[in-house]
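Ops channel
N.P.: pipeline sanity check, posting one input/output pair.
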């Protein structure tokens, strides 16, 4: 393995080089080191350098890097050749190297850098190595400093791209100031978070052991690499779980020398960037070179990536619009050969390219596997925000400690919102809303509208979906939401929060799982050697929200009360058309038949959708041909729920906590 270290700045190199001399230098005369350099500028036997020092001058050629590179290079010489090297050095520069024969490698390199600049030291070493017929060792030194130049430029580009991130429209923050280290799990298919305010929900049965929690620095660490033979790692995570932020932070920490320094090169490529070449043939290396122009020098300088030297990260595999066919796609192993994007990605997932490099592929959990069944790879999964992570995120978003404390206390008082903050995207939306309140009035009252925030989450997921497939018509989009809502309501009536995929209704699993972000699929192992694919929603409360949305849109767009067929004592509806109060009465009556409270949050969401603020958010899903609508005041909703409770003889505190709709 070859060493390519991160470069210090020229100022740091100069400071390190001269710090000791400055303490003893005479104020009126030149330093000892300056005298030495002047004396050796006229060697007794002129050495003709194979390349002028100015030709390799570069900010990456620092004192620290040069010292390590020269030491590593000279260690490749046998003992006799090293003695010859020292003799040649003494022949051309007798004064600084008069005692060179007694010097070891460290002392010799130290004396060389005391006497000459970094550029001059490198060229003297290369020239003497060639003169003693060690061209291969001289070439190794050239390779080291060229790769270090490429690395330096790559680090600068990564810092430029990822040092700041957008947290909301028109507002950016330094990534280091906003990032919260969400642990990854060393195993995938861990399923959703099923914590719930009202219900006790169990996950699908499985015999698998949960994976270990890994920090960002531990993921793909040197220790990790030594324990696995897999060159590919799939990083799975729900929509909004922070996969892209994780990738950006990893690249930024590498560029700033904080972690993953065992990789000399890190390239981040989004599938969205690769999708620009769907209609053309292009090679993998052409894509890399277009995004990272400095990488072209690897080929033009006649270099290659050494074992585990380069890390390629492909972010957002679920954004690729086509399906993968591993059985009927031709095999390619040349990363420089042009091919269609489908062929390129299939062979990338097969592990055919760049056999010495490492690959990370991020994706939402796919409805159909995006990795070949016979491939050799590791799978890890993004975790969710812990309670400590939630508090840390809000403290980072709100720089005013008093505001941060208010937000944390407020969110904790709303149990469902606090639970849902396990999803980083939801945390971000909540923080955006509270920042808007503080901008309008620093002492303003923080909102408690739960339905409003879930609608914001749905709109955000729909927006992300539209950016991935703009051709998806509004009618198809609404149909998918209605299908998912009906599926959610059917499960809710049965008291279920997951279903085996083989028993799911006939809607597009590709759209529901891969692209909408509302559903997820994971594999369970109920028995040894028995695997079952399970479909569920992002979170049980998302299922309850989608069921309420289905009831609301059925009534709003189709004048249909979904409870007509399920409530025994049907309510007579007005001849002038359904009124929303009648829908609510039917929903309350249905809920009263469920003593376990399984429809409590569903009813809270449904009531919330009758409020003006939430209906305005839901306008994109309203059909223009629907009948006129009116808004319901919160006191009317409370009156309806209290009436249903009194008629049902049930406890209001247990079954109808509708204070935050």
């Amino acid at each position: 393995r070859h060493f390519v270290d991160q470069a210090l700045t020229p100022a740091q190199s100069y400071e390190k080089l001269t710090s000791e001399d400055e303490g003893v230098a005479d104020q009126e005369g030149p330093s000892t080191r300056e005298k030495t350099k002047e004396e050796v500028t006229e060697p007794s036997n002129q050495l003709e350098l194979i390349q002028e020092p100015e030709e390799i001058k570069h900010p990456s050629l620092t004192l620290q890097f040069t010292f390590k590179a020269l030491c590593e290079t000279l260690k490749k010489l046998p003992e006799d050749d090293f003695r010859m090297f020292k003799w040649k050095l003494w022949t051309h520069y007798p004064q600084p190297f008069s005692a060179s024969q007694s010097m070891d490698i460290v002392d010799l390199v130290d004396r060389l850098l005391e006497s000459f600049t970094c550029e001059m030291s490198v060229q003297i070493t290369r020239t003497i190595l060639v003169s003693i017929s060690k061209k291969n060792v001289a070439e190794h030194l050239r390779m080291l400093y060229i790769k270090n130049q490429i690395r330096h430029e790559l680090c600068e580009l990564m810092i430029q791209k990822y040092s700041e991130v957008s947290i909301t429209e028109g507002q950016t923050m330094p990534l280091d100031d906003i990032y919260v280290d969400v642990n990854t799990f060393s195993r995938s298919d861990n399923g959703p978070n099923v914590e719930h305010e009202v219900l006790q929900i169990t996950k699908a049965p499985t015999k698998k052991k949960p994976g270990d929690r890994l920090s960002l620095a531990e993921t793909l660490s040197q220790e990790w690499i030594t324990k696995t033979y897999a060159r590919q790692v799939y990083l799975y995570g729900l929509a909004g779980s922070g996969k892209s932020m994780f990738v950006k932070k990893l690249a930024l920490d590498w560029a700033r020398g904080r972690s993953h320094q065992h990789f000399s090169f890190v390239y981040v490529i989004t599938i969205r960037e690769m999708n620009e070449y769907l209609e053309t043939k292009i090679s993998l290396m052409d894509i890399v070179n277009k995004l990272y122009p400095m990488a072209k020098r690897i080929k033009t300088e006649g270099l290659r990536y050494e074992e585990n030297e380069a890390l390629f990260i492909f972010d957002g595999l679920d954004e690729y619009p086509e399906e993968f066919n591993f059985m009927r796609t031709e095999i390619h192993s040349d990363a420089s050969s042009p091919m269609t994007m489908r062929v390129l990605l299939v062979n990338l997932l097969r592990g055919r390219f760049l056999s010495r490099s490492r690959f990370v592929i991020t994706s939402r959990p796919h409805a159909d596997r995006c990795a070949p069944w016979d491939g050799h790879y590791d799978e890890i999964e993004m975790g969710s925000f812990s309670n400590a992570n939630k508090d840390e995120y809000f403290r980072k978003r709100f720089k005013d400690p008093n505001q941060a404390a208010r937000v944390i206390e407020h969110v904790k008082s709303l149990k469902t919102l606090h639970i849902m903050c396990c999803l980083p995207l939801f945390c971000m939306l909540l923080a955006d809303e509270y920042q808007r309140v503080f901008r309008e009035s620093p002492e303003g009252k923080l909102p408690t509208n739960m339905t409003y925030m879930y609608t914001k989450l749905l709109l955000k997921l729909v927006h992300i979906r539209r950016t991935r497939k703009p051709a998806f018509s509004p009618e198809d989009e609404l149909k998918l939401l209605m299908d998912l809502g009906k599926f959610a309501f059917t499960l809710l009536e049965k008291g279920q929060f997951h279903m085996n995929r083989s028993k799911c209704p006939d809607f597009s699993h590709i759209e529901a799982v891969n692209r909408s972000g509302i559903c997820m699929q994971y594999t369970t192992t109920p028995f040894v050697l028995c695997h079952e694919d399970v479909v569920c929603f992002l979170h049980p409360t998302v299922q309850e929200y989608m069921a309420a949305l289905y009831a609301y849109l059925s009534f709003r767009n189709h004048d249909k009360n979904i409870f007509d067929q399920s409530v025994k004592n049907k309510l007579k509806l007005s001849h002038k058309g359904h009124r929303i109060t009648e829908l609510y009465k039917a929903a309350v009556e249905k809920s009263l038949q469920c003593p376990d409270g399984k429809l409590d949050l569903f009813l809270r969401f449904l009531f919330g959708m009758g409020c003006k603020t939430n209906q305005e958010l839901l306008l994109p899903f309203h059909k223009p041909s629907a009948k006129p609508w009116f808004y319901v005041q919160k006191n009317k909703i409370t009156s309806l729920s209290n009436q249903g409770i009194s008629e049902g003889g049930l406890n209001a505190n247990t079954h109808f906590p509708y204070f935050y709709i």
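N.P.: looks fine end to end. The chain has 27 helices and twelve strands.
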